[in-house]
Write a structure and sequence with these properties.
By secondary structure, the chain is mainly alpha-helical. It folds into two domains: 77 residues, Arc Repressor Mutant, subunit A (Orthogonal Bundle); 137 residues, Four Helix Bundle (Hemerythrin (Met), subunit A) (Up-down Bundle). The protein contains ten helices and two strands. Strand 1 and strand 2 form a beta hairpin. Helix 4 runs parallel beside helix 9 and helix 5 packs antiparallel against helix 9. The longest helix has 28 residues. The termini are far apart. It comes from Gluconacetobacter tumulisoli.
């Protein structure tokens, strides 16, 4: 009888968890909740109109995703961004997308090739016009199209989680780094390898591309990336 009575409560908490989890995750990713920010349970519950139970369930999930850290005597804190962790995330991202690109090259699916060529043209147009927002939207679609077309759920899920961390520094990166006519050409080697069915070439080209992105991002840190003081930023202190 106890189990039967408990089930409605569990079922009721699930929709609340599904509400609060993406709200908190998005706020962390877009830096509305910046790195190092203490998450007040009472404030969040009042703002979202929920109890502490679904909130704590959401915080546990965010902790497993690496977006929240439980600090002794403090509670939940938005995980700070450190250069070593960011380097590791980019390294993982490069590996995942290289695997995806190799699988896509092996398949040589005409529809996938058509889509990435169309996206590439959008990027070239945005680059010529100096439109950062449109350029980076198209860039995201390019990479996401390749990852989805690979048909590997494990890669897709790991990529999604990794991108949550990359997006945390994305806005500052996109604003600070130059957007010249050559920017859209970064994908040309990847596209050529996919069209040719060159599995090894696609793997190497994608890996090299994302390693270059990592070097650019980590080599030019912008104030505010890593938290309120940026005491862990490269060259700081």
């Amino acid at each position: 009888m106890r189990d039967r009575q408990d089930k409605p409560g569990v079922a009721a908490r699930r929709p609340l968890l599904e509400l609060v989890l993406p709200v908190l995750r998005d706020a962390i990713i877009n830096r509305t909740l910046p790195p190092g920010e203490r998450l007040s349970e009472s404030d969040i519950c009042a703002r979202l109109g929920i109890s502490r139970t679904p909130l704590r369930e959401a915080l546990r999930i965010l902790e497993t995703e690496g977006l929240v850290t439980m600090a002794a005597g403090v509670g939940a804190v938005v995980t700070p961004i450190s250069p070593p962790d960011l380097h590791d995330r980019f390294d993982l991202l490069a590996g995942l997308e290289a695997i995806a690109a190799a699988r896509v090259a092996g398949r040589r699916d005409p529809e996938t090739i058509r889509r990435i060529l169309a996206i590439q043209r959008e990027m070239e147009s945005a680059s010529r016009q100096g439109s950062r927002e449109e350029y980076y939207k198209a860039n995201d679609r390019f990479h996401q199209t390749i990852v989805e077309a690979a048909g590997n759920e494990a890669v897709l899920n790991a990529h999604r989680t990794t991108m949550w961390h990359v997006y945390r520094i994305r806005h500052a990166t996109n604003t600070a780094n130059p957007l010249g006519p050559e920017a859209a050409r970064h994908h040309e080697a990847i596209i050529a390898a996919v069209i040719a069915g060159d599995v090894d070439g696609a793997f190497v080209s994608m890996r090299r591309h994302l390693e270059d992105v990592s070097d650019l991002v980590l080599g030019r840190p912008v104030a505010g990336w890593f938290g309120a003081t940026d005491h862990d930023a490269p060259g700081a202190g």
